[in-house]
Structure formats: C-alpha cells, structure tokens
Write a structure and sequence with these properties.
- By secondary structure, the protein is α+β, with helices and mostly antiparallel strands.
- It contains six helices and seven strands; from the N terminus they run H-H-H-E-H-E-E-E-E-E-E-H-H.
- It has helices at about 5-30, 30-40, 45-85, 95-105, 195-215, 230-240, and strands at about 90-95, 120-125, 125-130, 140-145, 150-160, 160-170, 175-185.
- It has a seven-stranded antiparallel sheet, with helices on both faces.
- A hairpin with a 5-residue loop joins strand 3 and strand 4.
Length: about 240
C-alpha cells in the first residue's frame, strides 16, 4: 500500500510548473522590477538581517509553545485513560488518508470524525476506540471486534520517509474500508513507531481480536504470515 505515491507525483509536477512560471515571470518582468527597486528607499543591510532573525526566533518560539502544549495534552489524556479504562493504550498520528477512510465508514451516520494531531487508541476486550481531548478525553469513534475483519502491518510514504502502518480492515454500516494507522514512537527525535515495538503492537492487537471473536463464538480471521520479531541487535545491524 502506497496511497501517497500518486499524490506525491502530482504535487511534484505542480510545484515544478509553478516554479517554471515564477522564473519566466521574473525574467519577463526584470526591467519593471529594476525600476521598482531603484525607487525603493535604501535600507541598511544590518537592519534587514536583524529583522529576519527576530522573525525567525518568534516563529521558532511559537512552534515550540504549540509543540509543548500538544505534548502536555497528549500526556494528560493518556493518564486519564489509563486511570479509567482497562486496555492497551497507544498514541496515533493523524493522517489525511486515515480521516478520509474513517469518514467513508461513517457517511451514513451524518457526522464527521475528527481526530487530534496526536490521538489515543484504546484496545480492550470490547474493541478499538479512538480518543481526543486532554484531561477529559472524548471518544471520537469505537469499533467493536465483530466489525474488525483483519489486522496487518504495511508501510506508506509520509513526506520523504517510509513508515510502518498498522492496517485495520473495518466493516461498518455496509462499507468495508482499510484504516492505515501510524503509531507514534513517543520519543524525542523519532516520528513513528518502528521495528520491534511496532510489530509487538500488531501481534498484541491480533491476539486480542482473535480472543474476542472466539469468546463470542464468531468465525476467526484466517491466519496470515508470522509477524517478524526484530531483536534490538538485529535492528542496529540493519541500520548500519
């Protein structure tokens, strides 16, 4: 699964065409630009440099405040869920494709599913639930195990990187859709969960799924190829 690839190619073509148009416009309008520049008042180079530096520092400060607030909100939600619910708690990273697929499932419910940039996932004996909010979590959507058809691992392109995704096939309201879930690593400098921790989550969710279906006497999903168990030393050797 690589749903981002066609969009990336189209975006690259559009950016290239826009850049070519900008360059052609600058070349064609260079005499006009020269006359405009000559009429502008002279400004000290040092003042311009200081101005750009101040703008950059302000932008960095705003970004840092937003990131710290988001992290604090995620931690508060995690603590609240851990204290009130039983189950395995994970943190997901919102993606446009995931939101699109979720709203395909709920199109008959006359409501849009919204997720935070970092949302929580609780997996327990009842099913899989997605949560928003902070100290007072709000459940965005819940899928009982009987609606989960399959759980598998895959990968997709995000930006310029390939990341692991946990794929849920959900059948809800007559629609069958695959939900690509990017799990957050929760570590500074790391974006998505990968290697052994990622595959451990996939195995755990699959085991809970099969156990819940067996308890209700429902048909179990077919067994797929075994999920690799990546040892830390093997992962370190592969990165060299």
């Amino acid at each position: 699964m690589n749903p981002a690839a066609p969009h990336r190619v189209g975006l690259t073509v559009l950016v290239g065409l826009a850049a070519a148009a900008v360059v052609a416009g600058l070349v064609a309008g260079s005499p006009v630009l020269e006359r405009i520049m000559l009429r502008l008042p002279a400004m000290p180079t040092a003042d311009i440099a200081v101005g750009f530096a101040v703008i950059g520092l302000l932008a960095l400060a705003v970004w840092g405040i937003v990131a710290l607030g988001r992290a604090a909100r995620t931690r508060a939600r995690g603590r609240a869920l851990a204290s009130t619910l039983r189950g395995e708690l994970s943190c997901g990273i919102r993606s446009r494709l995931l939101l699109q697929r979720l709203n395909e499932l709920t199109i008959d419910d006359a409501r849009d599913v919204r997720l935070g940039a970092r949302y929580s996932i609780v997996v327990d004996e009842l099913g899989i639930a997605f949560w928003n909010g902070g100290r007072r979590p709000r459940r965005a959507i819940h899928f009982p195990w009987r609606e989960v058809r399959n759980i598998r691992s895959d990968s997709m392109v995000v930006g310029g990187s390939v990341v692991h995704v946990l794929v849920l096939r959900i059948r809800h309201g007559g629609a069958s859709v695959e939900l690509p879930i990017i799990l957050s690593s929760g570590r500074a400098g790391r974006f998505a969960l990968a290697d052994a921790p990622f595959f451990a989550v996939v195995r755990s969710w699959k085991a809970k799924h099969r156990a819940a279906l067996a308890a209700e006497g429902l048909e179990l999903p077919p067994l797929t190829a075994p999920i690799p168990i990546i040892r830390p030393e093997a992962a370190a050797a592969a990165r060299r």
